[in-house]
Specification:
heterotrimer, A alpha/beta (about 250), B mainly alpha (about 260), C mainly alpha (about 250), B: mainly alpha, C: about 250 residues, mainly alpha, about 80% helix, binds adenosine-5'-triphosphate, binds magnesium ion
């Protein structure tokens, strides 16, 4: 379990002369779920877009599986924060999920099978022929997750994937992700500013400072698996970790 | 209001207008304003007999050709301008000039260069359609949501799929709105181009009828053109409903011209 | 920054160079397209001639009057129609049926009755500009946020105040963009009345020049038409931006 899949080294990003990310270094091991938390504007999205190859760093580097990232790598899938903008309204749910697979070279039937499997895995059987806007927000976000899973990535990168759904749906989606990790054997990097969510889902948490962001601390989450919204969140360990992260995030924003 | 009374309420004014015209025209014996029966008879005689293949079809054929060529070229050019900034900067002022130059003003130039005939007519129609579609497609390409561009890049969608499944549909509200505007402009330009000496076509027959004091025929021409304008517009509303409407997108009102 | 200024200039210069060299080299027959230089000379002659300015005056006057007349009828009517669902339904069918009719349709009839004078031009311009303005205004007025309207009612603003202070301002951006389109199409229709209907103005000069096979003059006049179009678009674009800002 200890081999490193992603290593982010001395990442620095200037927007013009505004320094957003200042020498961020951390790693993600294969099979791990790592959360990146930090106050709003800390540079979380920036760091994540660089990892996904959507943005060039000013200096520093990202390597995934030993290969340096220079553009969107083939085995990385991204779930964007704004589900309503990241689904293609003119395609059906199925079309949205199959599009990346077809682009990857899968045959029509193979893409279809993989897509239907992924949709079933996120609990969306029977919606394949609908259009995104006919679904609720939570369902749309699950389509985006299915699209990412069907892609069979080594690394799944998610930018505040549950930020724009209601609290109940959010918990449902969190609990959806946990078992899928095993099922799809995927390493996950999750950006969030919800500390409970980070503690609940992660194996490790990278806490960033306000911009220009640096890594304040990397915290190991030693809570037992499998996790549960009720039992896990009542553990003393959960409260302690939550407290620790909160203090870090708070101390620098005040 | 119930559905039926609602419909009745809507029908009052058009019915009154038509009945009022008929009532007045029958009595007034004004040669300029023939009664509806005379117009209908002349309509049948002029447009539905041999006139259909002689005048209506050629007009429509020119319209369809010119419109489609202009539309396709405009979309293609718009994609190019939308993607390549240098081209956009380089051609910006020229495109702006041709966008605001009314296509009808180019008739003399087209007549001089191409003579009177179908080539000239199609040429002016192409021109009138091209720039509206070009400018709005460019704007549409520029307005594609950055989130969608990210999706395309992150999932490594290839150039063809990216263009046809991602960029063009995303720009569709602009393109469809422009195509609709362009269609009504194209009808106008088609008719005008037939009024500068063409020997055949709906516009030619209609203007000639007026010059030859055939007022019922002139009215038949006006009615046909009105029907044409109306039904093309209605057909387009359907296109809009089944594309951008179904995707929950709204057609924009972009840059116009005439 | 530099690119923003240099490239457009380069584009214009390139097009001019292309025009001049294509016509000079004989690539394009001089009987088809005049050289740029002869066109510029013709333009210079035009700018110094009285009939040209008279024609410009004719075109601009009919364009402006036609546009103002359209707006004067369409905007108040659009406000009234838009403010009442019943009124809108009552006029819906004729309005939607008359709108897509190209103004050219009534040209033969209008020519017959009005003999190609300025009233004739204004009538045709109105057929082109009035309906879109009317429909857009009424859409703008009806599209208003329910909450704003309910607020106005709860403060017991009367019908008149609601229309003038609540509905009209809310509709202004749409009206401004419709006006921009109307201004452009009014200009095109004005040219049509002159080209086909023989009304005095820029279009008539074009017909005469084309008839006399005076190519440089034809091109110079077309250039003038394009520049006027640009001017109109710029002016109404500025108006539109202003309206959008004050919101
Ligand atoms: N395209 C850009 N151009 C200029 N500055 C930017 C750009 N994107 C982000 N920034 C700036 O960089 C900093 C980090 O932004 P980023 O979006 O990465 O933060 P974040 O941690 O994701 O914030 P949030 O929690 O609000 O999503 C912010 O100060 C932001 O203003
Ligand atoms: Mg962010």
């Amino acid at each position: 379990m200890s081999d490193t899949l992603v290593s982010v080294e001395h990442l620095t990003k200037f927007y013009g002369d505004h320094l957003a990310v200042d020498g961020v270094t951390f790693g993600v091991r294969t099979g791990e779920m790592v959360s990146i938390v930090g106050p709003s504007g800390a540079g979380k999205t920036t760091a994540l877009r660089i990892v996904a190859g959507l943005l060039e760093p000013t200096s520093g580097s990202v390597t995934i599986g030993g290969v340096r990232v220079t553009g969107p790598p083939p085995d990385v899938a991204v779930v964007f924060q704004d589900y309503s903008r990241s689904l293609l309204p003119w395609l059906t749910v199925l079309g949205n999920v199959t599009l990346p697979l077809r682009a990857k070279g899968l045959s029509r039937t193979a893409a279809r099978t993989a897509a239907l499997d992924a949709l079933a895995a996120v609990g969306l059987d029977g919606t394949a022929r609908r259009r995104p806007r006919e679904l609720s927000g939570g369902m749309q976000q699950r389509v985006a997750i299915a699209r990412a899973l069907a892609y069979r990535p080594k690394l799944l990168v998610m930018d505040e994937p549950f930020a724009s759904v209601d609290a109940q749906t959010r918990m449902d989606l969190e609990d959806l992700i946990l078992p899928l990790r095993q099922e799809y054997a995927v390493t996950i990097m999750l950006v969030t500013h919800d500390i409970d969510e980070a503690v609940y889902l992660s194996d490790r948490i990278v806490v960033l400072s306000p911009a220009p962001s640096t890594v304040l601390r990397v915290i190991d989450v030693d809570l037992p698996l499998p996790r549960s919204q009720t039992a896990t969140k009542e553990l003393p360990g959960f409260a302690r970790l939550r407290h620790e992260v909160l203090d870090l995030v708070r101390a620098r924003t005040d | 209001m119930s559905r039926l009374t609602g419909l009745l309420w809507q029908a009052i004014l058009p019915a009154a207008l038509i009945a009022g015209y008929q009532f007045w025209a029958v009595r007034a014996h004004n040669p300029y304003f023939p009664p509806l029966g005379a117009i209908a008879r002349e309509f049948r005689a002029t447009w539905l007999g041999p006139g259909f293949t002689e005048h209506v079809l050629p007009s429509l054929w020119n319209l369809v050709r010119g419109y489609l060529i202009g539309l396709l070229a405009g979309v293609a050019g718009g994609v190019l301008l939308g993607r390549v900034r240098v081209l956009r900067d380089l051609l910006g002022p020229l495109v702006g000039f041709f966008l605001t130059l009314p296509a009808v003003a180019l008739l003399p130039i087209f007549v001089i260069a191409l003579g009177i005939g179908a080539t000239m007519q199609v040429g002016v129609i192409v021109f009138s359609v091209f720039f509206v579609v070009l400018v709005n497609t460019t704007a549409g390409m520029r307005a594609v949501d950055a989130a969608l561009i990210d999706v395309g890049r992150a999932y490594r969608i290839g150039p063809l799929r990216r263009l046809f499944l991602l960029l063009l549909p995303a720009a569709a509200p602009y393109i469809v709105a422009a195509a609709r505007t362009a269609l009504s402009i194209a009808v106008l330009v088609m008719v005008v181009s037939e009024m500068v000496g063409a020997p055949y076509g709906i516009g030619a027959v209609t203007l000639l009828a007026q010059q030859e004091f055939q007022y019922a025929r002139m009215w038949a021409g006006m009615v046909l053109l009105a029907l044409l304008g109306y039904s093309l517009n209605a057909a387009f509303a359907l296109v809009e409903r089944f594309t951008v409407g179904r995707w929950g997108m709204v057609a924009t009102t972009g840059e116009g011209r005439s | 920054m530099i690119r923003r200024a240099v490239l457009p200039a380069l584009g214009i210069a390139g097009a001019a160079g292309l025009w001049e060299s294509a016509t000079r080299s004989g690539l394009v027959a001089p009987t088809d397209v005049p050289t740029l230089t002869s066109t510029v000379t013709a333009l210079g002659d035009l700018l110094g001639s009285v009939p040209f300015w008279v024609a410009i005056g004719d075109t601009v006057r009919s364009w402006a009057l036609g546009l103002v007349a359209s707006a004067a009828v369409a905007i108040p009517l659009g406000l009234a129609i838009g403010a009442s669902e019943r009124a809108w339904r009552f006029v819906r069918i004729p309005v939607e049926a008359l709108r897509p009719i190209p103004p050219i349709v009534i040209l033969p009839l209008a020519l017959l009755i009005l003999h190609g004078g300025i009233t004739f031009k204004i009538m045709l311009i109105m057929q082109g500009a009035l309906w879109p303005l009317l429909i857009q205004t009424s859409y703008g007025v009806r599209d208003i946020d329910r909450v704003v309207l309910d607020t106005a009612r709860s403060y017991r603003l009367g019908w008149w105040r609601r229309v003038v202070f609540v509905r009209l301002p809310a509709a202004l951006p749409i009206v401004a963009s419709a006006l921009k389109l109307a201004a452009a199409s009014a200009f095109a229709v004005a040219l049509v009345t002159e080209l086909i209907g023989g009304a005095p103005g820029l279009g008539q000069l074009l017909v005469v020049a084309a008839g006399g096979n005076d190519l440089p003059r034809v091109y110079a006049l077309t250039l003038v038409a394009g520049l006027f179009g640009l001017l109109v678009a710029a002016a109404f674009g500025a108006l539109q931006r202003r309206v959008a800002q004050t919101r």
